[in-house]
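Try this one yourself first.
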């Protein structure tokens, strides 16, 4: 099968490319020509690069038509930590995502999987399932929800399958160092303390390669509808941080309660992934500890190589 991937330079999209290549399929990625993509450095000759800005379909639509993908996995979105939740750039992402759907359908792509978010849900209801109520509280979540609803209806009109994968919390090697897991591991490597909230918030964390595998499984099977891409195993942030600190060899570094909660800090976010498992046979390859160990090994290796400071 021939896959088209967007957001291939990001931490989800880059792992989607790896998963597709691992399966033996061909993959092309639309990437902005003026940006570096360090997560793809070792894959430069393994996939087809289609240069272009997603916001300007004229830049890349002809190349996509020439390559003729059979499946699309769309992960591209603005996600700069601390800025993305209420950024007007979410509106741009919504617009170009709908344009992408039209172009992909026009060139004969019949299977699509797009990345949504758990924040589309009403997070006050407890364990989250696909038939549960939605209540986005940020522009980011509202635009994701809108894209999922519109794209699924449009895909029906076009006779395509479209799976909407609602992604929960992710940790990953090569992650933005402002996010909690890499920030903690970098602090451990420097011998610093790590300031944290009380850590009583409950979250659902999944290794990025398992997230990518879920999106790939949905596209491969031609699945339709919404699917939670989640571990289904809630964990307190205190346990997550203490486990990561212990793996890094310094469990005393975590200073629980030394900083206040963030602005957007729901007490419980965890998802039921039964529908994804039953539809595709997907299962996570990592549990929390093994995934954190693999991530810690990556940060240690890059610190020894002088790739991080």
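Now uncover the answer:
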């Amino acid at each position: 099968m021939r896959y088209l991937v967007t957001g291939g330079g990001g931490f989800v999209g880059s792992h989607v490319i790896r998963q597709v290549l691992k399966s033996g399929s061909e993959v092309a990625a639309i990437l902005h020509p003026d940006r570096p993509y360090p997560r793809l450095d070792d894959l430069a000759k393994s996939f087809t690069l289609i240069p272009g800005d997603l916001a300007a379909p004229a830049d890349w639509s002809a190349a996509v038509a020439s390559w003729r993908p059979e499946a699309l996995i769309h992960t591209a979105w603005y996600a700069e930590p601390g800025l993305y939740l209420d950024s007007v750039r979410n509106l741009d992402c919504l617009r170009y995502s709908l344009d992408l759907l039209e172009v992909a359908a026009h060139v004969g792509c019949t299977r699509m999987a797009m990345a949504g978010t758990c924040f589309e849900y009403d997070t006050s209801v407890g364990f989250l399932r696909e038939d549960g109520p939605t209540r986005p509280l940020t522009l980011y979540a509202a635009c994701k929800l809108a894209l999922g609803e519109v794209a699924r209806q449009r895909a029906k009109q076009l006779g395509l399958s479209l799976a909407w994968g609602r992604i929960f919390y992710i940790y990953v090697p090569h992650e933005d160092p402002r996010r909690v897991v890499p920030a903690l591991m970098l602090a451990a490597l420097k011998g610093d303390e790590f300031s944290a909230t009380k850590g009583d918030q409950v979250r659902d964390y999944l290794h990025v390669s398992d997230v990518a595998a879920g999106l790939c499984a949905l596209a491969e099977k031609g699945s339709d509808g919404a699917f939670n891409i989640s571990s289904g195993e809630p964990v307190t942030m205190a346990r997550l941080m203490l486990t990561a600190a212990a793996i890094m060899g310094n469990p005393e570094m975590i200073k629980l309660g030394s900083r206040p909660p963030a602005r957007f800090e729901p007490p419980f976010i965890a998802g039921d992934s039964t529908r994804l498992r039953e539809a595709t046979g997907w299962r996570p390859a990592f549990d929390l500890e093994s995934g954190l160990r693999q991530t810690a090994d990556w940060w240690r290796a890059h610190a020894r190589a002088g790739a991080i400071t």
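Discussion: The chain is about 35% helix and 15% strand. The mean pLDDT is 95.
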